[in-house]
Amino acid sequence: MENFKDAWIVICDYCKNNMTDIAYNTWINKIEPVGLDFDNKKAVLMVPNDFHRQTLERCYKVLLEKAFKDVFDSDIKIEFTIPAEDTKEEKEIEITDNGYEYTFDTFIVGNSNKFAHAACLAVAQNPSKAYNPLFLYGNSGLGKTHLLYAIGNEIKKNDSSKSICYVKGDTFTNELIESLHRANMSEFRQKYRYADVLLVDDVQFIGGKESTQEEFFHTFETLYLDHKQIILTSDRPPKEIKTLDDRLRGRFEMGLIADIQPPDIETRIAIIKRKAEIMDIEIPNDVCEYIANNVKNNIRQLEGTVKKIKAKNNLDGEKPSVKSVQNIIADILNNDTPPEVTVEKIIEEVARTFNVSAEDLRSSKNRSAYISGPRQVAIYIVNELTTLTQEKIGQEFGGRDHSTVKYAIDTTSKKMKKDSKLRSIVDDIIKNCSI
């Protein structure tokens, strides 16, 4: 099937909205769609190795099957393969890349983003001399990542010798932890401190993590003093990232700060038409207007709607109409609603913030003070953000009893009233878990 790769993008969006960022980036993002035999209802997906395949089979196959059914309205059998098993038969269905490229040409400019767009274009055309650093902020799905990549692509197009380094805030933390564990900090620092352009997405995730912020500060200083370009994105401005180190906040604020707001209806219609043009599908004006009037706050949702229209059109040949897109919009809005915050996501974010392991937070054996404080914070946040009873919360943390859970909640609550720094850390963790 020629358009499996288009459908795969929609499937990935479904998975992304139903699991944590770490789980998605670790397991789903590394899958390569190989082929889809719709007659036999079979999809072949390539994964890096057998361990990856076993984990997907055990933990994420059900989610992937739900995603396939959501896109194709049919039960699809999933088969995982690894490179050594990649046979000619499995690859006989060619996948063409009609993928969407993050460039300035494909970015639709409107009143809500024209200042940010102009700033990004200036940086791309004159790196390290226009605005340095450049800090973009706004809600998820408004185009921050698009602009970030567009800057990198433009700089690379103008000078192919430039070294462009992109990283997400939580990935920077995870790589730092791994480098410390392997005693391989020189390689880590060489990767980031020798870049000509550093693009950092969701930088708010480094807030509250002392060792991460210390390393990032020195990386920032090295690049800035060497006249290298730094671009950062966040869901909020530096002053609202309460757990951000004052030194870093000052550095982030000394450049240009630009916000991006939700697009107005004219911009939304233009975005839909542009996405349809890129994906080579004709969407009538009345359908464009209907989508724009019902999908209002998120460009990613608009793109997802067009992708799903394209996927379904390729399957049944039906031309887009207001009636045919009603269910698609309902599915997109439902899938893009932030999923319920899970215990796993909370524990992962607490673990990253305090530089401990998720396993130690859950463990009933590790009772050291180094772990008990972060564990009490995790228990407190689970109690705040989920509907679990205190007995169920105890089960998530190594089978602790109700009285231990209550003590952890009460202790954290009392500490937060006396310690404004802890209060800010907990607030930022809650915000990060809700993204």
Give a structural overview:
With 435 residues, this protein is of the alpha/beta class. It folds into three domains: 1-94, GMP Synthetase, Chain A, domain 3, CATH 3.30.300.180; 114-259, P-loop containing nucleotide triphosphate hydrolases (Rossmann fold, 3-Layer(aba) Sandwich), CATH 3.40.50; 343-433, DnaA protein, C-terminal DNA-binding domain (Chromosomal Replication Initiator Protein Dnaa, Chain: A), CATH 1.10.1750. It is built from 19 helices and eight strands. The strands form two sheets. The protein has a five-stranded parallel sheet, sandwiched between helices. A three-stranded mixed sheet has the order 1-2-3. Strand 2 (42-46), helix 3 (50-72) and strand 3 (77-81) form a beta-alpha-beta unit. The two termini are 34 Å apart. The relative contact order is 0.10.
How is this fold's topology laid out?
Elements: H1 4-16, H2 21-28, E1 32-37, E2 42-46, H3 50-72, E3 77-81, H4 114-125, E4 134-137, H5 144-158, E5 164-168, H6 169-181, H7 185-193, E6 197-201, H8 210-225, E7 229-234, H9 246-253, E8 256-259, H10 265-278, H11 285-294, H12 299-316, H13 322-335, H14 343-354, H15 358-362, H16 369-385, H17 390-396, H18 402-418, H19 420-433
Parallel strand pairs: 2-3, 4-7, 4-8, 5-6, 6-7
Antiparallel strand pairs: 1-2
Helix pairs in contact: 1-3, 1-12, 4-5, 10-11, 10-12, 12-13, 14-16, 14-19, 16-18, 17-18, 18-19
